Amino acid sequence: MKTTMQSKLARAASLLELIVGFCVLISCVICGVGIVVSTDVKALFSTTGYFQILLSDACYIIIGIEFIKMIASHTLDSVIDVMLLAVARQMIVEHTSPVENLLAVGAVAILFVVRKYLYISQLDKPERRAPSRKGEAEAAPAQEPAPSGIRAAFPGARRGKPEPAATMGETAGEPLAK
Q1: How far apart are CA 39 and CA 42, in angstroms?
Q2: Would you say residue 130 lies in a domain?
Q3: Helical ranges in the chain per DSSP H
Q4: Rounded-to-integer distance, Cα 57 and Cα 31, Å
C-alpha cells in the first residue's frame, strides 16, 4: 500500500514538473519572439539603457531555457548551470557595488570549484536495474560507459603508455610510405 501511494505521488510530481516545464518553454518562445519583433533598432544604437533592458530580457529567457533543461535532466550539473547563469546575469545586467561584484565573482568561483572538485558524475547517472527475467541477463550484456575526455580523443591509448600521435600524412600505427 505504501509503495503504490509513493509511486503515484512520484508520478504526479513528475507530471507537474513536465507541465511547469512546458509552460516555461512556451513563455520563453513567446518572449523570444516578442524581443525580436519589438526591438527598435534606432533606440538600440542611440540609447544604452535600451540595450541593457534587451540584454536583461534575453538573460531571463536563457535562464528559463536552462531551468527547463534542469527539470528534464535532474542532474547536479544542470542545477549548477542554472545557478551560474543567474549569478552571471546579475553581474552583467545590474549596476551593483564593487562589494556585490566581488561577492558574485566569489559565488561563481565557488560554483566552478564545486563543479570541478566536488561533483561526482556517477551520482547523477541512473542506476542500472537488474534483469527481471532469467534469460535477460544473457541476452543483454552490460555495456561499458563511453570514454570521455582524453580517452575519447585517443581511443587506443592505455593508461601510462599513450600511442604516439600520427603526423601529417600517416595514420596511427601506419608509417609514411617512402
Answers
A1: 9
A2: no
A3: 2-38, 41-46, 48-73, 76-93, 98-113, 121-124, 136-139, 150-153
A4: 8
What whole-number distance in Å separates Cα of residue 60 and Cα of residue 48?
19
Which candidate, 16, 86, 33, 22, places its Cα nearest to that of 56? 86
In Å, the largest CA–CA distance within the chain is 76
As for how many domains the chain has, the answer is 1
Could you tell me the sign of the dihedral formed by the alpha carbons of 37, 42, 45, 47, in that order? negative
Model pTM? 0.58
For 16, the domain range is 12-122
Residue 160 maps to a domain:
no
Is residue 38 in a domain? yes
Ordered per-residue pLDDT tens for the chain, 178 residues: 678 889 999 999 989 999 999 999 999 999 999 999 999 888 888 888 888 888 889 999 998 998 898 888 878 888 888 888 888 888 887 878 889 889 989 998 998 888 888 877 766 665 555 445 554 444 445 555 555 444 444 454 444 444 445 555 545 555 555 4
